[in-house]
Give the backbone structure.
Amino acid sequence: MKKLFVLLPLILSACSTFEISRYSVSEYTNKAIISRGIRDVNIGSFTGYAFFNAGCRLEGPVAASDDMTFSTYIQHAFIAEFITASAYNPSSPITITGRVNKLKFTPSTVNTTGSWDIAISLYSSNGQKYSFTEHYVFPSDTNSATACTKTADAFVSAMQSMIAKIVDTPDFMLLVDNNPKKQEIVLADVNSQLFAHQFLPSTKDDESQ
């Protein structure tokens, strides 16, 4: 007796992966690192964000390039900026490590804009620690697949914006300084002078202006 085998086709739903481009350095950040005299900094490891939902509109996940985790991608973004500015030194006594506290994206809203929300804490081997946040808004689309593509495309710009703001803050100078207590005294002195100036009696020169 012959047996008849019937093969039923499997219908699989297609799923795309929206890959983020490799990080490209920011000209603004490059100039800021150089102008502020930041040199000889090592960038250590970044820990990941355990609750990140990478799925985008049932279209597929948003993924970092080269099969990296997002925490590693962010670490490499910092390294790229510091290498380009000749400020990276893996043998430096000052090492910056990081923790990703928040990582969330919205592909699009009713007004066809999307956003990335990123929060990280940076830790210096000199004992200093500071936290930073970025809310980056980008033009998106009502079409789901297009919105997810634009979301992936916007992550590089979101990271460029965040790193530029971080490098610009006085807090970051404390992270990369071998003598952060000295920096704190200088900053405190500047702030006290600005505060005192507000309450100084006006002079004739001030009144004439």
